[in-house]
UniProtKB/TrEMBL annotation:
InterPro entries recorded: HAMP_dom (IPR003660), HATPase_C_sf (IPR036890), HATPase_dom (IPR003594), His_kinase_dom (IPR005467), HisK_dim/P_dom (IPR003661), HisK_dim/P_sf (IPR036097), HssS/ArlS-like (IPR050398), Sig_transdc_His_kin-like_C (IPR004358)
Protein's name according to its UniProt entry: histidine kinase
PANTHER family: SENSOR HISTIDINE KINASE CPXA (PTHR45528:SF1)
Taxonomic source organism: Holtiella tumoricola
Topology in the lipid bilayer: Multi-pass membrane protein
Keywords (A to Z) from UniProt: ATP-binding, Cell membrane, Kinase, Membrane, Nucleotide-binding, Phosphoprotein, Transferase, Transmembrane, Transmembrane helix, Two-component regulatory system
Superkingdom of the source species: Bacteria
Length: 494
């Protein structure tokens, strides 16, 4: 976007892309893990603290009920075993004092008329002999019920209390109601102390886990960051960079895959450069010959009676260049899928015999013995005859190119179930294991091939591979020291 300033000049304005806070994987992982950590700790802290509060309130309530039961048992002894009311009251008073001291409680004993008969604790004792204003609660106790409440007696206490009501029977009848009140702040103070200890433990644990999360996130994101940098360098054509892979997890596997990709691209790039160099060399030679002979003819250096001879050389060189160009174009179209197969039935053995006739001259020149081992006279297959002829032609070219003088070439077919296996063997130097791996690659041409192939560019076997791949058939090479080199492929029988 451009704007004009007051001086009339143009000022270019570029929109700057804001960097998002959580754009990196490390920040995303760290934020996610911390979020999960916080939610988890808050959830469990809330659940645990509430559960502990409920447990401690129930625990205190059970203690109060147990003490109320003991006090009620003392009243039941009145009239039994000649115990007087005064001796019973003395023991009750002692139990109440212990209870008040242990739980900081206030204890009431209420008669059927709802009047206070005994009161203890720190609360005002002016309510003694007064009628209580909670008839519904008191009546439930006189009906023989044990009650527990956290509300209902607020007007008698300055702080909330936990109340337990217990019926006292004398002579088999409920004559009194016992109420024990324990201040809730005392209960909550202990609960708050436990919560404080729990919170400190949570903070310490969270701190340790945060450190672990931080370094784990760093460790997880570091190799991905390195992979990103390596991928950018590979995209810019630098295939030498590799990733240090540690472990066996998915990230390590991704790093190994990226290293493998870089190695393969490096090989392809090296083969491409070699291919360009070979093409340049192979094209330059015939072009130089053509230019030299045509120039010599035009300026009269070559006399008219020799024009036919040198024009034929020019024609041969032109045809060689056309063949090179056609090979490149055909391979390109095959890889792009622009050459669909035209499958039909044809006689494989007849095709091989016809193609072998093309090598009659080189057979004589190199004194090569050609053995044809067909499993039967005729063999019908279902494939694209034009493309399969090119496959056989290229493999025979390769065999005659590398066969030693006075050597042997063998063409064999073997029918197995619904397939025909075609073997083309030649005596001569073996192919190294390294060349066997790369011989089918685009742009690859072995050193041995460069020394003997004066007309090709090393893409004949690539065309073979692509053709057999399109037919969904098998293709391979067998080469061991001291044994013939064997190329083989399969076709579907009719």
């Amino acid at each position: 976007m451009e704007h004009k300033n007051s001086m009339g000049s143009r000022v270019q304005v570029r929109k700057v892309k804001k960097r998002v806070l959580f754009s990196s994987l490390f920040n995303k992982l760290l934020t996610l893990y911390i979020g999960i950590l916080i939610v988890t700790f808050v959830f469990f802290f809330t659940i645990f603290s509430n559960a502990f509060q409920r447990y401690y309130v129930d625990y205190t309530e059970n203690i109060m009920i147990k003490q109320a039961e003991l006090i009620a048992e003392e009243y039941q002894k009145v009239g039994e075993m000649h115990q007087s009311i005064s001796s019973v009251l003395d023991r009750v008073t002692l139990r109440i004092k212990v209870l008040d001291s242990y739980l900081d409680a206030t204890t009431w004993i209420v008669g059927k008329d709802h009047k206070m008969q005994m009161v203890s604790g720190k609360e005002d004792s002016m309510i003694l002999d007064r009628k209580l204003a909670n008839p519904e609660i008191i009546e439930k106790v006189f009906e023989g019920n044990i009650i527990s409440r956290e509300t209902g007696f607020e007007q008698y206490f300055s702080t909330p209390v936990l109340t337990v009501g217990y019926p006292i029977e004398i002579g088999g009848q409920v004559e009194l109601a016992l109420f024990i009140h324990t201040p809730m702040p005392q209960i909550l103070t202990l609960i708050d102390e436990v919560r404080s200890i729990l919170a400190k433990a949570v903070l310490v644990t969270a701190g340790i886990i945060f450190i672990l999360i931080y370094y784990t996130s760093k460790r997880m994101s570091k190799p991905l960051k390195e992979m990103n940098q390596v991928a950018k360098k590979i995209a810019n054509g630098d295939f030498a960079k590799r990733i240090d892979v540690e472990g066996e997890d998915e990230i390590a596997q991704l790093g190994e895959s990226l290293n493998y990709m870089a190695e393969e691209l490096d090989k392809i790039d090296a083969n491409r450069k070699a291919f360009i160099a070979n093409v340049s060399h192979d094209m330059r030679s015939p072009l130089t010959s053509i230019q030299g002979f045509v120039t010599a003819i035009l300026d009269g250096t070559i006399p008219p009676e020799k024009h036919d001879k040198y024009l034929r050389i020019v024609l041969n060189e032109s045809q060689r260049m056309i063949k090179m160009t056609n090979d490149i174009l055909e391979l390109s179209r095959m890889e792009e899928g622009n050459l669909p197969l035209k499958k039909m039935e044809f006689n494989l053995h007849e095709m091989i015999r016809d193609l072998l006739d093309n090598f009659e001259q080189i057979t004589k020149d190199k004194e090569v013995k050609v053995d044809v081992l067909f499993d039967k006279k005729e063999q019908m297959v279902f494939a694209d005859p034009e493309k399969i002829a090119r496959v056989v032609q290229n493999l025979l070219d390769n065999a005659f190119k590398f066969v030693n003088n006075q050597g042997t070439i063998e063409v064999e077919t073997v029918a197995k179930q619904n397939k025909v296996w075609i073997y083309i063997r030649n005596s001569g130097p073996s192919i190294s294991k390294e060349d066997q791996k790369n011989i089918w690659e685009r742009f690859y041409k072995s050193d041995l091939s460069r020394g003997k192939d004066k007309t090709g560019m090393g893409i004949g076997l690539v065309i073979v591979k692509e053709t057999i791949r399109q037919h969904n058939e098998e293709l391979g090479i067998i080469s061991n020291e001291g044994e013939p080199v064997t190329f083989y492929f399969t076709l579907s029988k009719v």
